[in-house]
Amino acid sequence: MNRLFKSIVIGLAVAGSLASAQAADFKPRIVRFGYGLAEDSNQGRAVRYFAEEMGKLSGGKWKVKGFGGASLGSDPQMQNALIGGAQEIMVGSTATLVGIVSDFGVYDLPFVFANEKEADTVLDGPFGQKLMDKLQAKGMVGLVYWENGFRNLTNSKRPINKMEDMAGIKLRVMQNPVYIDMFKGFGANAVPLAFSELFTALETGTVDGQENPVTTIESSKFYEVQKHLALTRHVYSPWIVTVSKKWYDGLSADEKKALQQAAAASRDFERKDSRAASAKAIEVLKQKGMQITTPSDTELGRMRATTTVAVDKFAAQPGHAEVVKELQAELAKLRK
Ligand code: TF8
Asked: Which residues are the signal sequence here (predicted)?
């Protein structure tokens, strides 16, 4: 009796939730979600997770299709496609958004976040939201931050133990002035280049090195063309999931709500998955033959001292001093 009652209740609940998914206002849609990394990467896994969630929440009405390996274009190209309404969703580094909202460069200031927990708290809190909201006036809507991760340095020339070892190394950086200034400060020859062109540039020797989290170094197979890895953790790099505002404005309230819900679920999934992958990546890279160095805290401190030039240059631009101050205030609260 008891069991029968239970199964009736469960049956009604399932029927109810199906009915409400159908009653909710969802249009059948094909949604293109572009990203730059390989399908077999933390980014690809999280895009697939998001697609499944959206499928469930929309009662099967939304078909979210992932396009990996920059097959819809580099990060800056996808941003323009979102603004123009030619693509619905993308994920990429906040660093490549500086051409649209320059304040995003604040996340790129070297050695800002001490650990993942600080990053999560600031990004998911009012500071991260306020910055995200600035995208709307430019034709994009920010949904959530994912983790790209702490960035480390690889190159084909020599092991890096101290700043001087970087001298003259042609190092690919993202298309972002903070990165260019930071690596010039370290003595490297910083070359801005889209990520989609990076593997070939490393392979042909157009550049000697690059910097990215270990997860990306692994999933992009940079170990095939790079011998040395230095664990510098010089910047914590967020990813941000953004959608086209033109497209977003045409969604129903139910659709917007589900989109936000799936995005939040994908964020939690992605961070967990990336952190697990990151913990394993160093061992994998070693097995692949990379030689790994860990510059001492003293050496990292010397590197950090040179970055005041990059930081001051960023802060000197209109509105940026305020943003830097706000971020520092948030961090000070956390460190109390
Ligand atoms: C870079 C970034 C990229 C990501 C990815 C393409 O080095 O870290 O790996 O933005 O989404 O350009």
From this structure: 1-23
Q: At the top level of CATH, which class does the domain 152-235+282-335 belong to?
A: alpha beta
Q: Which atom of ligand 1 is nearest to the CA of 172?
A: 7
Query: What interface predicted TM-score (ipTM) does this complex get?
Result: 0.98
Query: For the chain, which residues make up each domain, given as ranges?
Result: 27-149+238-280, 152-235+282-335
Same fold: 27-149+238-280 with 152-235+282-335:
yes
The per-residue pLDDT for range 143-157, each reduced to its tens digit, is: 999 999 999 999 999
* Measured distance CA(70)–CA(187) in Å, rounded: 30
27-149+238-280: in CATH 3.40.190.170? yes
Enumerate residues 6+ apart whose C-beta is below 8 A from 255.
25, 26, 27, 58, 62
Residue 78 in contact with ligand 1 by CB distance below 6 A: no
Instruction: Give which of 234, 233, 241, 240 is closest to 278, Cα–Cα.
Output: 233
* Beta carbon of 240 within 6 Å of any ligand 1 atom: no
What is the 92 CA–ligand 1 centroid distance (Å)? 6
Contact present, 49 and 274 (Cβ < 8 Å): no
- How far is Cα 317 from Cα 315, in angstroms, rounded to an integer? 5
Is 79 a pocket residue for ligand 1 (Cβ < 6 Å)?
Answer: no
CB distance 37 to ligand 1 below 6 Å: yes
Nearest CA to ligand 1 atom 2: 93
The response to whether residue 147 sits with its C-beta less than 6 Å from ligand 1 reads: no
